[in-house]
Amino acid sequence: MMLTETVIAGLLLVSGAVAAPAPNPLQFIKRGPSPGVVIQKCSNPGMLALAYDDGPYQYTSQLVDILDKGGAKATFFWTGTLYGCIYNQAAAVKKTYASGHQIASHSWTHGHMGSMSESQIRSEMTKVEDALVNLIGKKPAYMRPPYLETSGQFLPTMKSMGYKVITNDVDAGDWNNKSPQQSEQAFQQAGAGGNGHIPLMHETYSGTVNTLTPWLINWAKQNNLKLVTVAECLGDAGGMYQAGTFTGNGQNSC
User: Fold this and answer.
1) What letter does residue 44 receive in the DSSP assignment?
2) Which of 101, 106, 110, 202 is catalytic?
3) Is 130 known to be catalytic?
4) CA–CA distance, 163 with 189 (Å, rounded to integer)
5) In what residue span(s) does the NodB homology domain sit (predicted)?
6) 112 assigned to active site
């Protein structure tokens, strides 16, 4: 009787082993963020993705120096014409890219893209692409919509163009006359735990560049947060730019 039970138990073990599915190698491959889907914060803890809108501007080069000195990488969401023509800041654009920061799009004119037609939205994006190809040889794969507007034809168009859409989960409020000290409070309230923050900040304010950014670098270090690009904080460090080799059209003015 015991022999029969032992044989049956052995057969059950074998059949169980055979029935167990082989591991799928694809499940171990981390997928990057999907285009055309709004992303508000990092997908990993222990990080902070400093992100600045509305440049390039007169403070861009200075901001890059502050970030580089602090060992920080950041993301710059740039427009074509909001604060003057992007080509007028060619040296700062090239310096930012050479320093390893992420260059992303904030549209050409900073218009209300939620109420634009698909063709208008595409024009806003391709003009930035063309300028960045002329300046750094790259087309961005990330963007942040002006006014954080994502209605209408916007998201479907971003999906078809392959753009990863970033908003924020902390608002520095610099655009709304918040002082750097008030902005600091917003980060303290948000805390350093959980998945990393993607803040809304603007490099067009001296206080954000010269006061808030050094404070954030220190705050991150005190909380053991790595200061990374938005792409890296989403597990997509290799996907900052569109794949391919692009040739400029020779344009150097807006």
Assistant:
1) E
2) 202
3) no
4) 31
5) 46-228
6) no
CB 91 within 8 A of CB 47: no
R_g (Cα) of the chain, nearest Å: 23
- Contact between 162 and 35 under an 8 Å Cβ cutoff? The reply is yes
Q: List Cβ neighbours of 114 (8 Å cut-off, separation of 6 or more).
A: 145, 147, 149, 150, 151, 152, 154
pLDDT per position as a tens digit, 124-142: 999 999 999 999 999 999 9
Among the listed residues 32, 26, 27, 68, the one whose alpha carbon sits nearest the alpha carbon of residue 237: 32
pLDDT in tens, 41-60: 999 999 999 999 999 999 99
Of 40, 67, 63, residue with least CA distance to 145: 40
User: pLDDT of 93-127, one tens digit each?
Assistant: 999 999 999 999 999 999 999 999 999 999 999 99
Please state, in angstroms and rounded to a whole number, the distance separating the CA atoms of residues 247 and 208: 35
Q: Which residues contact 225 (CB under 8 A, 6 or more apart)?
A: 46, 47, 48, 192, 196, 219
| Report field, pTM of the whole predicted structure over 0.85 | yes
SS3 content of the chain, % helix, strand, coil (to 5): 45, 15, 40
Question: Which residue out of 53, 54, 174, 236 is catalytically annotated?
Answer: 53
d(Cα 46, Cα 233) in Å, to the nearest integer? 9
Helices (H), 77-179: 90-98, 118-136, 154-161
CA dist 83 and 79 (Å) reads 8
Q: Is 205 exposed, middle or buried (0-12, 13-18, 19+ CB in 10 A)?
A: buried
